[in-house]
Design goal:
133 residues, mainly alpha, 2 domains
């Protein structure tokens, strides 16, 4: 009788483990299906002349103040426009979020307001939306 109970318990634990693994595998497959297969490369976005790319990277390395000055200077240029400008501003928003959340929320709201749903930047806006609203 003891052996039958032990076999029954082992079988139940094995079956439960199998069902748990099956559930985990299903959720992992659903997660990979729902994640976007295309990831946007910021350098591939239109709106920033190639000669400004090194200056952008340098400003990002120098920190939030230098990055803000860079953004303010390129906004005046007729050659810099969305979607790349929106991406750059979102980079700045993420950079200053801990130090100045109010400013980060204001900039995020402006970027979100001017970005259409068909923009390549829109998925990033949706992913940041819960944080900055």
């Amino acid at each position: 009788m003891k052996i039958a109970i032990i076999i029954l318990i082992v079988a139940a634990v094995g079956f439960g483990g199998y069902k748990l693994w099956e559930y985990w595998d299903t959720t992992q497959q659903e997660k990979t299906v729902t994640e976007p297969t295309q990831s946007v490369q910021p350098q591939s976005l239109q709106g920033l002349p190639n000669q400004l790319e090194p200056k952008l990277q340098e400003a990002q390395r120098k920190g939030p103040e230098a990055f803000k000055e860079f953004i303010d200077s390129i906004k005046k240029s007729p050659f810099v426009k969305d979607p790349r400008l929106a991406w750059i501003e979102l980079d700045y928003v993420v950079m200053i979020a801990a130090k100045d959340p109010g400013e980060a929320k204001r900039i995020f709201a402006r970027v979100k307001e001017r970005t259409p749903e068909n923009s390549p930047v829109y998925p990033r806006i949706k992913s940041l939306e819960k944080t900055f609203e």
